[in-house]
Records
---
Amino acid sequence: MKRAPAKSSPPPTAPPARVIALLNQKGGVGKTTSTANLGAAFALGGLRTLVVDLDPQSNLSLHFGHEPTPDQPTVRDLFMSDELAARELVRQARPNLWFIPSDTELALVEGELALQPNMQHILAQRLAGVITDFDVILLDCPPSLGVLTVNALTFADDVVVPTQAQYLALRGLEKLLETVLLVNRALNPKLCVAGVLLCMHESQSSHGKAVVEEMDQYFAKYRGSGLPWQDASVLRPPVRRNIKLAEAPSFGQTIFDYAPLCAGAADYRALANELRARWTPLRENPREAATTGAAAQ
Ligand SMILES: Nc1ncnc2c1ncn2[C@@H]1O[C@H](COP(=O)(O)OP(=O)(O)OP(=O)(O)O)[C@@H](O)[C@H]1O
Ligand SMILES: [Mg+2]
């Protein structure tokens, strides 16, 4: 099993990774597809990237050709035991790209965690040991607002909400933002919402256009509000519906392995650039900042 990058490889002053939770309590909206392919795009762009599967469906690993076996530790071990160091759980998928797999038993963790004090902080505490090993950490959340998702929000800097441009998505978004606000106020004041990521987008649909316009107006209302989504927006470009994105995991591949020239690859590459451009200069190129002393400015 390949390990996480050695502790000594990043500069000693390396800043912590940017942590992004991909979250939507609605199922099948593109969370896992986006986590895998944004992660791959960040890695190809030179960022040391960790993706963490927080979903008992454990679909994320499929994109990397990983077949789970019963003896291999998973993210469940991260929650249920502190005997294994986080680094023991991290596997390398591609150059610059590592992942922590999940398994179906993670579903049991929800109930077990509910009995533990401080249960919202477990993920943040357990991944603290590897946070300076990476430039960016992506969290693939399950389709619920339960304990696993709250752990992701307690750890994250940013929330990205994969969704479709449909009227009901806006209603779900409001519910999700309520949860973000609760976590922001009670547990994680640095948490903010980067925006909505449109997946399986059909730009010709007039309903879709109307919903995107409504989402743009919704976020514009909150500029300067002090709420965690005051800087959020509909992220551009949308990810177009592209069959190659659905096919790639069945070959154990990311879109950049499977069809690097297709529209899906272009969209995720552009989105990764868009997200990076929003980070402060320090965060945009953390390793360079650390080595040039920009961190002090
Ligand atoms: N842009 C796209 N074009 C075509 N198919 C897509 C696209 N994005 C995602 N899909 C497909 O849609 C389905 C749902 O996507 P995905 O598994 O990423 O959603 P999810 O939000 O993670 O689901 P869940 O809530 O069950 O975890 C998958 O079959 C995936 O391959
Ligand atoms: Mg998923």
---
Amino acid sequence: MATRCRSFRRLRVDERLELTSERVKRYARQIVLREVGRGGQEQLMAGCVAIAGNNDAAAVARTYLAASGVGTIVVAGAPRDVREALAAVNPDVAVFEIDAIPSGPEVAVAIDASFAAEWARTALDKCVRTGPWLHLGGAATGGHLRLERGEFVRCATCSAEASRGAGSPSLAMALGAAAATLASKIILGVGHIPFGRVCQFDRFGIPTRDDNGPGA
Ligand SMILES: [Zn+2]
């Protein structure tokens, strides 16, 4: 269950969350999807995702979430110009540093795109203790994406290997895009959401297989 920090009322009544005709046009390709529709788009606009990481995979995840209209993105470890970068993608997205969340949004999912850095876990813990968590891991041979509910258990491979981040740009793109898509699906509550699974990608970002997570 998502952790509710404090009230999110101030942002909920914000005019950013109205599905105006301009926004219907902006999100048209998404609204036509049976799984999304107008109601789903409003859910995305009211949704909040926290992302930790300062790398290509984190940037891709933030960009995809902003483009799909997720209304609030909480960042940790992001570059200084993250607000401007996301405003260029979608001016409606509110971006907050994790240490400066004004009234405590209800974070739907936390994405650890730091490749298992301890600072990211500490930062995300402030907002989300019990998940859902989305974790990206990487090594020279490829990467993985893991989705968990409840307390986050570190991967055996991630704790054994030094965190190397996503190697190739195509792997970073694949991991970031997959993380953003799963986060949107969690907000919408649609489709297959592989909790407790580890999705493996090769070094070029091609999905190779699914394994049971460490809690299985
Ligand atoms: Zn891992």
